[in-house]
Amino acid sequence: MRQGGLGPVPVLIALAVIWVIFQGLNDNFLSPRNLSVLSVDIVGTGMVAVGIVFVLLIGEIDLSVGSLAGLAGAVFASLNVNLGMPEWLAVILAVVSGAAAGAVHGFFFARIGVPAFVVTLAGLLAWNGLTLYLLAPESAINVGDNGLVAMLTSRYFGATVATYGLAALGTAAYLLVSYHDRRRRSAAGMPSRPMSEIWARTALLAVVSFATVYVLGRFQGLPLALLIFLAVIIASDLFLRRTPHGRKVLALGGGVEAARRAGVDVARVRIAVFMVSGTLAAVGGLFVASRLTSASQVPGSGTLLISAIAAAIIGGTSLFGGRGSAWSALLGVLIIQSIASGMALLGVDPPVQLMITGGVLLTAVAFDSLTRRATESRWRA
Fold first, then answer.
1. Distance of alpha carbon 250 from alpha carbon 236, whole angstroms
2. What distance in Å separates the CA atoms of residue 206 and residue 227, rounded to the nearest whole number?
3. In this structure, which of 50, 216, 222, 379 has its CB flanked by the most CB atoms within 10 Å?
């Protein structure tokens, strides 16, 4: 915001308005039960959206993530249920299949020169076909209510000491990391955040963390799925902001030729980004299979793809590359799933939900375009 942008403020305001409206229309919207269900429902789409954020940051698009999510569930179910392979090994191979597919997309895009739109569109069709082949002769394979994959969305931590301890540990870790970063930047003579801002951020994080634990604890406890999702977001954010490889991704989104002249191996970074997207799509597919208790062609139907891309853009990641963060996926998927949850409580038909989500997506892209145009005008001035 100090640089002239609005940051996540519009998204947070929109989320608050959505919650207030739906709570006014239905008292059950902000109930512990509904918020607990919401916190688990966002994970599958959110994981895929984090991978989409990486692709959008380099100014490209990945249309295959929905099909890869379905493929991962089909690979797992085929190996574990049909062939009797141990669950842990089937999970690993399912995730590896997503990474391998992402590497194929990245290779054709970065080395051969096929546009990413075309490569991933071909992947959407091919991986969806492979999914249907693996699920044949049935259209779905039941993965059961017990086991490793089922536990992803059915496991909750209800112990008060453990949940509040996690909230306190996360807050303390943020404070220590921020303080260390401030000392390091000050020692190097670089601009750094004042301690007052660090304390304010820490206090805000503490309020959000403890409030979340308190509300979710009133139903079943803290979901394992939400903890894994937050861990992936934090790891992705640290990778993008604090590692040389992450800065190369951001630099590539800012300008391919400039990044190449600065010594960035453009092809390698592009392949790595599509591998990350494929891997997280596969992980998201396993969460979707866990939630549905079956591997099916539902993730590849298109809804998951649309929701994941919409979540990344609505959350603040620019469609034009170079701007965004992993937290965009969390904010965006919260808005999309909150709308879906609220309209489900009100009995609104799914087609209307899709139309409203499309309108929200168009608004977010239009806002992104206007912000980008204003920034360019300011720089030219």
1. 13
2. 16
3. 50
Please state the domain count of the chain.
1
Q: Which domain holds residue 146?
A: 9-158+220-376
Instruction: Kindly report, residue by residue over 60-94, the tens digit of the pLDDT.
Output: 999 999 999 999 999 999 999 888 899 999 999 99
Is residue 31 situated within a structural domain?
yes
Report how far residue 279's alpha carbon sits from residue 378's, in angstroms, rounded to the nearest whole number: 38
Q: Kindly list the distances between the CA atom of residue 298 and the CA atoms of 71, 82, 292, 342, 372, in Å, as whole numbers in the listed order.
A: 10, 20, 10, 22, 35
* Domain-located, residue 64: yes
pLDDT confidence band for 203 (50 / 70 / 90): very high
Cα angle 124-129-131, degrees, rounded to a multiple of 5: 95
Structure tokens at 202: 């820490």
Coil/strand/helix, residue 355: helix
Q: Which one, of 336, 335, 303, 312, lies nearest residue 69 by Cα?
A: 303
Tell me whether residue 1 is in a domain.
Answer: no
Closest CA to 58 of 331, 265, 314: 265
- b/e code 158-176 from CB counts within 10 Å (16+ = b): eeeeebbebbeeebeebbe
**Beta strand ranges found along the chain (DSSP E):** 140-142, 156-157, 222-223, 294-296
For residue 116 the two structure tokens come to 């990413």
Residues listed for the chain: 381
CATH number of the domain where residue 253 is located: 1.10.3470
Structural domain contains residue 196: no
Alpha carbon distances (Å) from 116 to 25, 123, 198, 324: 43, 10, 40, 20
